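Dear H.,

Thanks for agreeing to be a second pair of eyes. The structure we're designing against is below in token form, covering all 133 positions.
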């Protein structure tokens, strides 16, 4: 992802704390150049995220208008490390899309890690996250 998107992502997740932020990162190929914030409508927004369906549709419409594609999904769990939860893995509907997790157990020192989730296998694989520019 670009350095600007990384800074914007961390800032947005810190502002949402102690609730879990969520959204999309978009761009071209595997480089995220834009962030789309989505409202977390889960009943327990400190433990889980569920993106508002209308926000998702609007984000995809905007991505198409901008010539972008979905690169990653991001959550910011406020009370756990930056690793996918079992429910993240099992409920993943985009197994080919990166999941960039911003762990905020220590908000002053966020932990940012990226994963590919494999719901049919019930596991995840960490991938190297690069910040450009």
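And this is the sequence the design step returned. I haven't edited it by hand at all.
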């Amino acid at each position: 992802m670009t350095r600007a998107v990384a800074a914007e992502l961390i800032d947005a997740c810190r502002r949402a704390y102690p609730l879990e932020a969520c959204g999309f990162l978009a761009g071209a190929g595997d480089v995220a150049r834009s962030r789309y914030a989505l409202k977390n409508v889960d009943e327990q927004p400190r433990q889980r995220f569920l993106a508002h369906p209308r926000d998702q549709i609007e984000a995809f419409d905007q991505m198409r208008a901008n010539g972008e594609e979905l690169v990653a999904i991001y959550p910011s769990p406020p009370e756990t490390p930056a690793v996918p939860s079992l429910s993240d893995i099992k409920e993943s509907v985009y197994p080919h899309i990166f999941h960039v997790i911003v762990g905020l157990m220590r908000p002053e020192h966020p932990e940012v890690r990226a994963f590919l989730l494999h719901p049919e296998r019930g596991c995840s694989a960490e991938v190297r996250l690069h910040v450009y520019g």
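Two observations from my side: The chain has a mean pLDDT of 94. Residues 3-16 form the longest helix (14 residues).

Warmly,
E.
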